[in-house]
Amino acid sequence: MGIDVAVLRVFTDAAGQFGNPLGVVDAAAVPPARRQAVATELGYSETVFVDLPERGCSTAHAHIFTPATELAFAGHPTVGAGWWLRERGTPICTLQVPAGIVQVRYAADLTTVVARSDWGPEFAIHEVESVAELTTAQPWDYPDDIEHYLWTWVDREEGHIRSRMFAVNLGVPEDEATGSAAVRITDYLSRDLSITQGRGSQIFTTWSADGWVAVSGRVVSDGQRSL
Q1: 33 φ, ψ to 5°?
Q2: At what angle do helices 179-189 and 75-87 cross, to 10 degrees?
Q3: E strand or H helix at 163
Q4: Are 9 and 216 in contact (CB under 8 A)?
Q5: Which of 188-191's residues contact partners 24+ apart within 8 Å by CB, and which partners?
Q6: CB 133 within 8 A of CB 163
Q7: CATH fold label, 123-215
Q8: Are 153 and 163 contacting, i.e. CB atoms less than 8 angstroms apart?
Q9: Which of 20, 26, 43, 90 is within CB 3.0–4.6 Å of 176 for a Cys-Cys bond?
Q10: How far apart are alpha carbons 224 and 206 in whole angstroms?
Q11: Do 4-114+216-226 and 123-215 share a fold?
């Protein structure tokens, strides 16, 4: 029996360009013991397996896998799962992941999730001097035992930064757009941010002093594939 995979791009720009590819799978189609193998075969930086909500229920459950391991929380899969559920006609208010309960909000063309800053993986945070220095960095310039988040100011007053993220240890040499890293850098800088990551993906965050960070982005569908 084949496995249907919805393919999305999360954190696109306003024209629907860029964004981080994501595989979304109905969890009922894949037993837990096979999910890592499916995520590895798909090869996206993350694949999310979603237990569809019961009719009239505003909560869903999800598990997130990189090509190498399961994550307790990640940003672009939770934003993508929230968007995908609304497109199916089952919008949700909360998404339960292993790390905790993620609030989900919808407004205009943005899908927002709200999560704790300490839910995601640890990141070594590196401020670099310029966009030029950021552009020339390579994953193998950094140790492969932890994820590395590189960033630099574009407009400090407006809270706009550019960034890149390397996660060789998770099987992802470079991630195009990383919601959990956006949560971390927002909490680290203690302010709302507009983040351009990778080639041009866009992430918007809202900081709260109580440790919660809202992460917003646009999502588009790139169709389906089957395994």
Answers
A1: -65, -20
A2: 120
A3: strand 160-167
A4: no
A5: 188/125, 191/159
A6: no
A7: Diaminopimelate Epimerase; Chain A, domain 1 (3.10.310)
A8: no
A9: 20
A10: 32
A11: yes
Q: Which of 50, 79, 75 has its CA nearest to residue 63?
A: 50
Pick the closest to residue 74 from 175, 159, 150 (CA basis): 175
What is this structure's pTM?
0.94
Q: Give the integer Cα–Cα distance in Å for 227 and 224.
A: 10
Topology of domain 4-114+216-226, per CATH? Diaminopimelate Epimerase; Chain A, domain 1 (3.10.310)
Domain locations along the chain: 4-114+216-226, 123-215
- Cα separation, 186 vs 180, in Å, equals 10
Summarised one tens digit per residue, pLDDT across range 126-177 is: 999 999 999 999 999 999 888 999 999 999 999 999 999 998 888 889 999 9
